[in-house]
Amino acid sequence: MNIEQNYIYIGIALIVIVFILKAILGRKKPPTEDFVCARCKSKEKYTNRTIEAWRRGFKKIYCQSCHHLWLKNNPHHKKQQYHTSGGGCLSVLVLFALISVLTYGVIKYVS
Ligand SMILES: [Zn+2]
Questions:
Q1: How far is the CA of 66 from the centre of ligand 1 (A)?
Q2: Where are any strands of DSSP class E within the chain?
């Protein structure tokens, strides 16, 4: 077993740990149950979409009707919207792949 290879496994392990921590800590929720729409100023309850926007640090959060209006005016952003909805599933796959690699590394490291 050469030392260089060990560093690769330690590196992979660190990446996985950071990824898991980010996944856990990144699931935080907004401090209040509702928000004020940045456009029509109406008080709205947070939805999965607005919570996601809040997590990404967006200062302007829109209610459902204003969001649809915005999408109508910015049709090229629609594609991105679909992309984010599948993001959760994709990150699970990436996590699974990383764990597989890590497990493989540990088995090789131990043997
Ligand atoms: Zn609104």
A1: 4
A2: 34-36, 43-45
